[in-house]
């Protein structure tokens, strides 16, 4: 069903309202029979998109409200979240930053609502990767992430004025012997990188490219 403007060729053109065969509805601008310009699309599932269209696809600035209560407000390209945008998740977490091909990709900030912790750094295909800071209530980790986990050199900066330098190392769990079944079960467990501390220093500048920790600033003397 369609109610609205048409061009001399009889195509939907201008402003109109339509009900699609699947129960979805659209109200907004058309060009030559296709949704183009500003419009609001209501999905039968309860989802809703309001924003720009180009030839039937979400393209430009727009807000998408998902059925689970989450929301994306930002740039779209060819029906995909792409460019810059903010996603508010159903649990209250938020991500603000760059998107590519519908995924978090580039630089962005993810805020965990429950703890107030914040990840500020790189993303690759939706996963935390690259130089980053993980900011907690009274301390911050600065280092690099790989595949969603910290890996390699980094440091913890504590609000009371000191830093602990070290590195996250991937601990390989290898088992030899007859217990093949157990080995298979253990292999399926995710291996968490382990923090190996090397030294404590006063506060020092940090850039994402820093691979070497600064040299110690003199030895602390224990009170006698």
What's the level 1 CATH class of the largest domain?
Mainly Beta
**CATH topology-level fold name of the largest domain:** Histone H3 K4-specific methyltransferase SET7/9 N-terminal domain
Give the strand content. Answer: over 45%
Radius of gyration: 26 Å
Number of helices: 1
Protein name: Radial spoke head 1 homolog
Biased composition (Acidic residues): 175-187
Pfam families: MORN
Main location: cytoplasm
List the helices and strands and how they pair.
Blueprint: E1 2-6, E2 12-19, E3 25-31, E4 34-42, E5 48-54, E6 57-65, E7 71-77, E8 80-88, E9 94-100, E10 103-111, E11 118-124, E12 127-135, E13 139-146, E14 149-158, E15 162-169, H1 180-187, E16 194-201
Antiparallel strand pairs: 1-2, 2-3, 3-4, 4-5, 5-6, 6-7, 7-8, 8-9, 9-10, 10-11, 11-12, 12-13, 13-14, 14-15, 15-16
Biased composition (Acidic residues): 175-187
Organism: Scytalopus superciliaris
Function: Functions as part of axonemal radial spoke complexes that play an important part in the motility of sperm and cilia.
Task: Characterise this structure.
The chain is mainly β and 224 residues long. The chain folds into two domains: 1-90, Single Sheet (Histone H3 K4-specific methyltransferase SET7/9 N-terminal domain); 112-171 and 194-202, no CATH class. Helix content is 4%, strand content 57%. A hairpin with a 2-residue loop joins β9 and β10 (103-111). The protein is elongated and about 75 Å long. Residues 175-187 and 210-224 have low confidence and may be disordered. Functions as part of axonemal radial spoke complexes that play an important part in the motility of sperm and cilia. Keywords: Cell projection, Cilium, Cytoplasm, Cytoskeleton, Flagellum, Meiosis, Repeat. It is found in: Cytoplasm, Cytoskeleton, Flagellum axoneme.
């Amino acid at each position: 069903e369609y109610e609205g403007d048409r061009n001399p060729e009889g195509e939907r053109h201008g402003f109109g309202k339509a009900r699609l065969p699947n129960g979805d509805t659209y109200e907004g601008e058309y060009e030559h029979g296709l949704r183009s310009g500003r419009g609001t699309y209501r999905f039968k599932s309860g989802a809703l998109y309001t924003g720009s269209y180009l030839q039937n696809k979400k393209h430009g600035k727009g807000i998408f409200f998902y059925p689970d209560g989450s929301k994306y407000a930002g740039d779209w390209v060819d029906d995909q979240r792409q460019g810059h945008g903010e996603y508010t998740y159903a649990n209250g977490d938020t991500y603000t930053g760059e998107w590519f091909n519908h995924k978090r990709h580039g630089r962005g900030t993810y805020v965990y609502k429950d703890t107030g912790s914040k990840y500020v750094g790189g993303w690759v295909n939706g996963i935390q990767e690259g130089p980053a800071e993980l900011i907690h209530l009274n301390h911050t980790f600065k280092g690099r992430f790989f595949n969603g986990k910290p890996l390699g050199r980094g440091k913890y900066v504590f609000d009371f004025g000191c830093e602990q330098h070290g590195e996250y190392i991937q601990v390989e769990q290898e088992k030899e012997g007859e217990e093949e079944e157990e080995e298979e079960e253990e292999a399926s467990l995710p291996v968490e990188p382990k923090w190996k501390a090397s030294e404590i220093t006063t506060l020092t500048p940090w850039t994402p490219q820093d691979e070497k920790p600064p040299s110690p600033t003199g030895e602390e003397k224990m009170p006698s």
